[in-house]
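Notes from hallway chat w/ T.B., transcribed later so I don't forget. T.B. wanted the structure written out for a chain they're using in a teaching module, and asked if we could keep both sequence and structure tokens in one place. Agreed to drop them here.
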Amino acid sequence: MRSVLIVATCAALFSCGGSQSKSPSWPSNASVHVTVIRDDVHPTYRCDGQIQTYFTTASFSCTAEGFDAWDVRGYAEQFVLSDVLRFWIHDTGAASPTAQPDIAVDLEPLGDRYSGWATIILPDGTFFGHPGATAEAWIETP
């Protein structure tokens, strides 16, 4: 039964393009700078940070209208989907960790940079995401 499942999965993968498709690529060992900005809706916010793809760690410094500056430091889940690169940043120092990421970013390749959207959880204790931010990213060279 297990071999049938493996064969069916592989057949579906290749029939839909699988590893041969043109999905976005992301280096497995890189330092990526990410900027997240929401400046058109209250509350406005900005987060700047680094994601280390090899160690799947992240460190962001954030500011938001009506809040003191705060940091989001922890692990970065990476998902390479057919059309976007997705990162979920989880703050390991959060008072009440949830399954929801503290920062969520979807990026599409745009030349040698990446752009997309993002949402963050503000440090207001509600644990609600505040969507509507734009995101830009680039791979930093050593």
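Follow-up for T.B.: DSSP finds one helix and eight strands in the chain. Might be a good example for the class.
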